[in-house]
Amino acid sequence: MSEKIYCIAMFKAKPGKEEALFKILQSLEPNTLREDGCLQYIVTRKIENEFASGNSFSLVFNEVWANRAAFEAHCQRQEILEFFQQQCVDATGLVEAHNVCVYSDQPHHYDAPIL
Prior knowledge:
Layout lengths: L4 E9 L4 H10 L1 H5 L4 E8 L13 E7 L2 H8 L2 H12 L5 E10 L11
């Protein structure tokens, strides 16, 4: 069974700051893509489409990690910690709101004994 971790990290920029925030998020890609266990790490921008009208923040990282340890190591890198502190926590940051969630493709009770 796969041990992959899928992360969706969404960001809502403060008014008038979306382009600047997008560039900062893009700057995180090169070093992250070099990390052991990083399978995909790309920042995307929400576009309008009649077949996808759901609600979301406008900037989203789509991440795939080989396993939980690789994802957790990424989250503890200095560059990532500094980004969250400077852009999401500090009052002068460009992020108005953010939401980071992780997912697994493993079904519940996989390999559970049959009773």
